[in-house]
Amino acid sequence: MTQAPGDVPGDAELLAAVAAERERIEELLCELVAVPTTLGNEEAGQVVMTEAFRSAGLEPFDVALDADALRASPHASPFSWSVEGKRSVVATWDPPGPATGRTLILNGHVDVVTAGPADLWSSAAFTPRRDGTGWLYGRGACDMKSGLAAMVGAVRALRRLGVGPGARLTLQSVIEEECTGNGALQCVLAGHGAADAAILVEPMAGDVGVAQVGVSWFDVRVFGVPGHTADAAISHSAIDVAQDVIAALRGLEEELNADIPPAFAALARPITLNVGAIHSGEVASIIAGDCLLRCRIAHFPGADLADLRRRIEAAVATGAAGSGGRPPVVSYDGFAAPGYALEGAGELLSALDLATTRAGLPCPPRRALPATSDARVLGLAGGTPSVLYGARGERMHAPDERVWLPSVTETAGALALFIRDWCGLQGLPASR
Ligand SMILES: [Zn+2]
């Protein structure tokens, strides 16, 4: 089927074309969940996404991560691991005729966090499981393989109707969203980060994300005075020191929550400190000599990250003051991500309001996030007004993560309408 030029499909026609893609959208999502794309293992997901972009009639290309280029960018987060051989995948869809509309980026991340304790899951984390009522379970089902499947579905629906965007539409499947944002940053460095708008198809449950806190990762190694448990009077366990350090960092967390900017006022406690991992000790009869804490703390947009680091280090020094051991060591590996708040993007927000309501969905409430996302990368490094919008799910980063499948196709429908309204549509040349 081919659309005559100037003959733009209406809401019902577009939504019907998306509905016809529902099965394929859900199949793609299951295929993606079945590949455990944790840090360092993203490639199998990019193989699936490359094929998915091809199936939508696009010609995807690789954006290889380049350690030197990343480290030279002021927008990069530090990383200690090798990025050799790793890639984001991009596909651009240019209008068949002269551009008539506004450009758009649809972005999703293929990487997922680790599954956590296997016995806390009801079924295997990387085996997609439908429960028969509409929920799909699996790590990444919600965050955010749902978004990748939805954006491919929207593009396939347009192609099914014989229309293409009236201005460049860029699709990105990036990596390292969950640890650095460097997969999205590499797209920006390669010249694919600038557009009139970007939608990060994150699982926002139908809300639109317009502001997000910054996130910094830091590691703290503290020392005690190790020894025999018989020498407890002269020894000092590093595990006890670590508890004092955590208490001091909680004080910093408290301070950072003291002055909440208006964009985050709806959140009771936007700034959180999370001690995500503790490594220490060997056996019960040794007083532990060292303890490593892997931490994450949030901060508001505009925070001075150098100053924040000084405050982290001061809190750690205070907490470890009575250890009697070596001074603590603070190091930084992973997110050094500033906060981001959308400003003056009224046209983008009203176009999204219109697309969602015409798709039969509620007008999306604006929401600030107490977490980070690649919206900050496209927004701050790419200069592209960026919002989050996507499917409904539960238990992200937790056991039994799940997504409500109907919301994935609904997201694809809203995206298809948004593309029509934002980019415009043009008839594609008749295919043979
Ligand atoms: Zn995500």
Number of helices: 11
Query: Roughly how many Å is the radius of gyration?
Result: 23 Å
Uncertain stretches: 1-5
- Specify the biggest β-sheet: 9 strands, mixed
Q: How does the helix and strand content classify structurally?
A: alpha+beta
How much helicity do the residues have? Answer: 25-40%
Mean pLDDT: 96
Query: What are the bound molecules?
Result: zinc ion
Termini gap: 11 Å
Q: Could you tell me the strand content as a percent range?
A: 15-25%
- Total strand count, please? 22
Shape label = elongated
Please describe what this structure looks like.
This protein is of the alpha+beta class and 432 residues long. The protein has 11 helices and 22 strands. The longest helix has 19 residues, at 238-256. Residues 109, 143-144, 177, 202 line the site of zinc ion (ZN).
Question: How would you concisely characterize the structure shown here?
Answer:
The protein has about 425 residues and is of the alpha+beta class.
Task: Provide the fold topology.
Elements: H1 11-19, H2 22-33, H3 43-55, E1 61-64, H4 67-71, E2 87-93, E3 104-109, E4 129-130, E5 135-137, H5 145-160, E6 163-165, E7 169-174, H6 182-189, E8 198-200, E9 208-212, E10 214-223, E11 227-228, H7 238-256, E12 273-280, E13 286-287, E14 290-299, H8 305-319, E15 329-331, E16 336-337, E17 340-341, H9 346-358, E18 366-369, H10 375-381, E19 386-389, E20 393-394, E21 402-404, H11 405-423, E22 425-427
Parallel strand pairs: 3-7, 3-8, 8-19, 9-18
Antiparallel strand pairs: 1-2, 2-7, 4-5, 5-21, 6-22, 9-17, 9-19, 10-14, 10-15, 10-16, 11-13, 12-14, 20-21
Helix pairs in contact: 1-5, 1-11, 2-5, 5-11, 7-8, 9-11
This protein binds zinc ion.
